[in-house]
Batch of 2 targets.
Target 1
Amino acid sequence: MKVFKFGGASVKDAEAIRNVARIIKMYENDQLLVVISAMGKTTNALENILTQFINDNAAYAESIAALKKFHFNILEELYQGEDPSAYHQLEDLFLQFEWFFELGEKDNYDFLYDQIVGFGEIFSTKIIATYLQSVGIKAKWLDARNFIITNDNYREAAIDFKLTESMVQRKIPDLLSDEIIITQGFIGKNRQGHATTLGREGSDFTAAIFAWALNAQEVDIWKDVPGILNADPKKFSDTILFEELSYRDAVEMSYYGASVLHPKTMQPLQNRNIPLHVRSFVKPEESGTMIFDRAINKQHIPVIIAKENQCLVHVASNNFDFIAERNLSRIFQAIAQNRVKINLMRNSAMRFTFCTDFDERKLNALKTELEPEFVLETEPGLRLLTIRNATDEYIDKLTDNQELILEQKIEHVAQFVLQ
Ligand code: ASP
Ligand code: MG
């Protein structure tokens, strides 16, 4: 059996959904579990609704109305008024969704986030599963929260692999023998029965978890790019497509911020030796990139990864103390506790500096925690450039005429923080 994953861009409107249906139709006779994300930019819209709601901004109600309209318009285009059951189902889901706002609970942001933001995936998969049925595909909608079991680390829940495997094995292989399963990425449930999420862009990871638990023969991630390229084609020209990559190379690329794959995706696949196929939903006949164990490692191809919206954080002692091991361990503990992610770091006599994705909420929390003992300064609006396997000449070309704030080189990887 195979696992497919379709991301937000592949289901952003009615035409895109028809295309997904055409692709699934080509594999109709295979055993298939399909993981789907929220439509287009829905997850961002949901995050925005939640922020408005928490800040007592009455505009949240209009934002909900807009989100509802977006989904109903897609239904309208797909069905042209036929099949009232699809409309009723969506109406019901929106009632469940709005109920969380009626409760008026605003205290626990991370918890509330997971109850609300995961609805994007529920809306999209309901619409798509019903549509597939309407065009004659035997599709069954399943709620991923009943299978992907996690701890209660809201917004970045960790998978309970053992329990997940037994839940999946108990039910899914039987169903797969005569239906295509349509389910959600990104969401799970903890032992208390509350919804959780796996972190932004986590649907790739969900596909890998299902594949692992089902011992799938392959995972196919369908994207708007031809496969894995050595740089983001939206930012760089003359990109090169990798025909194959090892798990290790793919992990490293996603770790440094290549947004083509979620960094956690590879581990479950590598553990069970399941190949990952990254391919185009625009040109499904093309071969894309295969990621597997013994792929040929093309060390000579440089890989460029640019991460925007970066922030440098400088931490200094407030009493002229060195930033040595004791202080560092205190700083790291606070960083881990506040779930701040370090993309690059450097220490000097009087301060410790690190580069992180700019997240005001997390950085403020970190500041509050460390500020009695340390002074924190932030430098937002930066860019982190990572280059693997590059010659000096190549690096010069990419960094020429730019203000370098920090640079670091180790083995075959060079990193630069730029203005
Ligand atoms: N919809 C979620 C997000 O945009 C999960 C995903 O797309 O992978 O982060
Ligand atoms: Mg998405």
Target 2
Amino acid sequence: MDTKRIIIAIDGHSSCGKSTFAKAIAARLGYIFIDTGAMYRAVTLYALENGAINSGIVDDDMVVRMLDEINIDFRFNPQRGASDIYVNGDLVEGKIRTIEVSNCVSAVSSIGAVRSKLVAMQQQMGLRRGVVMDGRDIGTVVFPEAELKIYMTADAMVRAQRRYKELVAAGDSVTLEEIYENVVSRDKADMSRAISPLRKADDALVLDNSNMSVEEQMAWFMERYEEVLSK
Ligand code: DC
């Protein structure tokens, strides 16, 4: 008998390893991994490159007018074991995680029309089930009926240090202080925005991974997953 294919929603704070975790789960289960933060980042990058963000100030109306010009798609990259994100056919995976994009993405993701467009795309991607989706509103708005919801968090300084190491390894010249500021301010913005703020769904399981390895998180996850399947 085929194993039941479910939707796994992973929400939580910035930089707490949601994507790494979601990607590992997808590889383990043979599911599709969808990084919804990458979609908000791709819209932000497009807005930055096309004049809708100047000196860090986002022109909401201009972003909304641009939305029809922005075609996002994911293509599986076997080397990474995950999908790369493309905007209008251009690979933007390497450009969306800079501090410049990180500093503007909360403002762009608080625009209602941006959210409606991306949420509709995400719902479409989940129609065939067997997906692990990570973001801020997956268990509350995109898939409130997801069978397994996880709310991830970790100490803010631990998160800043992890992100700092990644950016330095990628050749960015950033300071730990600016990364910490960004992590804390994004948490605040994501949790206080008017539309679909980050919050734990009532039925989500909390995973604080401040002191957990990826292996420990995976063991924690597999127990919960088996429980859901046996219901
Ligand atoms: O997961 P991330 O840090 O790459 O996400 C970037 C930003 O996108 C995050 O600060 C808030 C926004 N976001 C969102 O509003 N809703 C989602 N489902 C995913 C991300």
